[in-house]
Amino acid sequence: MALFSVYFMCVSALLQRLEHPIKPDGSLSLMVIGDWGRKGAYNQSQVATQDLEIALKDSIAKWKIVVGHHPVRSIGHHGNTKELNRHLLPILEANNVDMYINGHDHCLEHISSTRSQIQYLTSGGGSKAWKGDIDDNNTDGVKFYYDGQGFMTLELEQTNAKVVYYDVFGKVLHVLNLFKGLHSPI
């Protein structure tokens, strides 16, 4: 006969919430791309990439941030997404994107591009994690990797961006601070 106990406990997590209305001066461009999909002859990824390229070229924002589901760069279980490296990465680099934020890989990671200013930020450790599943052959630019559960926050100001990675208990694991001048170098 097996005996077991079930314990229930009340927990409360309060996260800081910062909200701002859309900036009418165009000082921030946050673009979300559906980075995967085809339906018959219709290539939704190609259309999304074309739309993103136009939006990035037209943007006068100081901070350019693109969000997608799949990683461009990752040393986690899924690794780099070849299609995004082929089709999306040249657009991100040509348009001076500051950050590409994604999930998909069940980890937390920060990778700095070795070819451009892009910071690749993965926050995919919210529901599960794959301990020890790391591609050690793909480590160029890796600043932080955590194969446990956790989350990431992003705080933006006109000249500063702060990214903080936390474990599930709220312990700070990694901090990235980015700075920009007051005036664009155009």
Summarize the structure.
The chain is 15% helix and 31% strand. The protein has helices at residues 44-58, 82-87, 89-94, and strands spanning 28-33, 38-39, 42-43, 63-68, 99-102, 108-112, 119-123, 142-146, 150-156, 160-167, 172-179.
Please, could you describe this protein's structure?
This protein has a 6-stranded mixed β-sheet with strand order 1-4-5-7-6-8, with helices on one face. A 3-stranded antiparallel β-sheet has the order 9-10-11, with no helix packed on it. The protein has a domain of 122 residues: Metallo-dependent phosphatases (Purple Acid Phosphatase, chain A, domain 2). It has 3 helices and 11 strands; from the N terminus they run E-E-E-H-E-H-H-E-E-E-E-E-E-E. 27% of the residues are buried. The protein starts with 27 loop residues before the first strand and ends in a 7-residue tail after the last strand. With 186 residues, the chain is of the alpha/beta class.
Helix count from the secondary structure assignment: 3
The main pleated sheet reads as: 6 strands, mixed
Stretches with pLDDT under 50, minimum 5 residues: 10-19
**Overall 3D shape:** globular
CATH architecture of the domain at 28-149: 4-Layer Sandwich
Structural class: alpha/beta
Which topology of the domain at 28-149 does CATH recognise? Purple Acid Phosphatase, chain A, domain 2
Q: CATH superfamily of the domain at 28-149, please?
A: Metallo-dependent phosphatases
**Average pLDDT:** 82
- At the first level of CATH, the class of the domain at 28-149 is Alpha Beta
Number of strands: 11
Radius of gyration: 19 Å
Distance between the termini: 75 Å
Q: How would you spell out the order of helices and strands?
A: EEEHEHHEEEEEEE
**Which strand order do you get reading across the main beta sheet?**
1-4-5-7-6-8
Percent strand equals: 25-35%
Helix fraction by DSSP (H/I, runs of at least 4): 10-25%
Keywords: Hydrolase, Signal
Pfam families: Metallophos
Domain Calcineurin-like phosphoesterase: 51-107
Organism: Lupinus luteus
